[in-house]
C-alpha cells in the first residue's frame, strides 16, 4: 500500500471548490503534495530527527501531533537511537492513520510507536521530552491554540522541546506579498499550474489560518516555554524550537 501517486487533485476546473480535508484522496497523494507545496519540507523532516536526538530523555514519551503518514514520526524514531522512549503519533484522519500504520511496519527503527486516531486537542501530554507539531497547529481553530500549547508545555519536562512548523503570515503587506509570490513560484517550479494553485488556495482559505512569527513567539512564551528560536525559514514557512 506504499503509494507514491502524483497530486492532481486540483488539476481540473471544479464547479465548487470544497474546503480542504485530509481525506482518502489527499492521503493517497500526500507525500507528493507536501513535498511540492511546502518549501523546505524535505530539509525540515531529517532535522526533526536531529533535534529529537538532542532533546529526548530516557524513560520519557515523545509525541508527533498530526503525524499524517508518519514522515515526522519516523524522523523522530530514528533520532531516538539511544534514549529509551515511547513515541506516540496522533492524527484524527482515519485515511492517514491507516496508511501511517503500514509505513511504521515497514520501518526498522527500534523505539516503540503507539499510533492513535483521535483529536490531538483531547490528548493529555504527559512525561514528555520532545513534541512535534509539523504543520498541524495551523489547522485547528485559533481559539483552541493557546490551550493546546499550554497542554504541551505542562506535559514537557523542564528542558524539553517543542518543534513547531507553520505556514506564517507577514505584516506589512509588502513582505507578505513577496513571500507569498515566491511560495507560488516554488509550486510552479514543482509542476503545479496556476489553476491548481488557485483552487488549492480557495480550498485552504477557511481551513489553514496562518499567524505571524511574532504571534507564535509571544503565545509560546505565554504558554510556559522559556525560549523560542526560529531554527528554519523558507519564504512563508517557518519552524520554531521552543524549550520548556
Ligand atoms: C500538514 S499535515 C502534517 C504533516 C506531517 N506532520 C508530516 O510531517 O508529514 C496535518 C495533519 O494534521 C492532522 N490534523 C488536523 N487537525 C487535527 C487534530 N485536531 N487532531 C489530530 N490531527 C489533526 C491532519 O489530519 C493532517 O494529517
Ligand atoms: O499553503 C499551501 O498551499 C499548502 O499546500 C500548504 C500545506 C501545509 O502547509 O500543510 C497545506 C495542505 C497540505 O497538507 C500540504 C501543504
List keywords for this structure.
244 residues; alpha/beta; Rossmann fold; 7-stranded mixed β-sheet; 8 helices; 41% helix; globular; binds S-adenosylmethionine; binds prephenic acid
In short:
By secondary structure, the protein is of the alpha/beta class.
Secondary-structure map with pairings?
Layout: H1 24-37, H2 41-55, E1 60-65, H3 71-79, E2 85-91, H4 94-106, E3 113-117, E4 128-134, H5 145-155, E5 156-167, H6 173-189, H7 194-204, H8 213-222, E6 227-234, E7 237-243
Parallel strand pairs: 1-2, 1-4, 2-3, 4-5
Antiparallel strand pairs: 5-7, 6-7
Helix pairs in contact: 2-3
The structure holds S-adenosylmethionine and prephenic acid.
Any overview of this molecule?
The chain is an alpha/beta fold. It has a domain of 165 residues: Vaccinia Virus protein VP39 (Rossmann fold). 41% of the residues lie in helices and 21% in strands. The protein has a seven-stranded mixed sheet, with helices on both faces. β4, α5 and β5 form a beta-alpha-beta unit. It is globular, with a radius of gyration of 17 Å. The mean pLDDT is 97. It binds S-adenosylmethionine and prephenic acid. The site of prephenic acid (PRE) has 9 residues, from α1 and α7.
Amino acid at each position: 500500500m506504499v503509494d507514491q501517486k502524483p497530486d492532481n487533485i486540483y488539476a481540473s476546473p471544479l464547479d465548487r471548490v470544497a474546503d480542504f480535508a485530509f481525506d482518502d484522496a489527499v492521503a493517497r497523494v500526500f507525500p507528493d503534495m507536501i513535498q511540492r507545496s511546502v518549501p523546505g519540507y524535505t530539509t525540515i523532516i531529517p532535522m526533526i530527527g536531529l533535534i529529537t536526538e538532542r532533546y529526548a530523555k530516557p524513560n520519557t514519551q515523545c509525541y508527533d501531533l498530526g503525524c499524517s503518514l508518519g514522515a515526522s514520526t519516523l524522523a523522530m524514531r530514528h533520532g531516538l537511537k539511544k534514549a529509551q522512549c515511547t513515541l506516540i503519533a496522533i492524527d484524527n484522519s482515519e485515511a492517514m492513520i491507516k496508511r501511517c500504520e503500514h509505513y511504521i511496519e515497514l520501518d526498522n527503527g527500534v523505539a516503540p510507536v503507539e499510533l492513535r486516531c483521535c483529536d490531538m486537542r483531547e490528548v493529555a501530554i504527559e512525561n514528555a521530552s520532545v513534541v512535534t507539531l509539523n504543520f498541524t497547529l495551523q489547522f485547528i481553530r485559533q481559539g483552541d491554540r493557546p490551550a493546546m500549547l499550554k497542554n504541551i508545555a505542562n506535559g514537557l519536562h523542564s528542558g524539553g522541546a517543542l518543534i513547531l512548523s507553520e505556514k506564517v503570515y507577514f505584516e506589512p503587506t509588502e513582505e507578505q506579498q513577496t513571500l507569498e509570490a515566491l511560495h507560488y513560484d516554488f509550486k510552479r517550479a514543482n509542476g503545479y499550474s496556476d489553476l491548481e494553485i488557485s483552487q488549492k488556495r480557495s480550498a485552504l482559505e477557511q481551513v489553514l489560518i496562518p499567524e505571524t512569527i511574532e504571534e507564535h513567539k509571544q503565545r509560546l512564551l505565554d504558554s510556559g516555554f522559556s525560549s523560542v528560536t526560529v531554527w528554519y525559514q523558507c519564504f512563508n514557512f517557518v519552524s520554531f524550537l521552543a524549550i520548556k
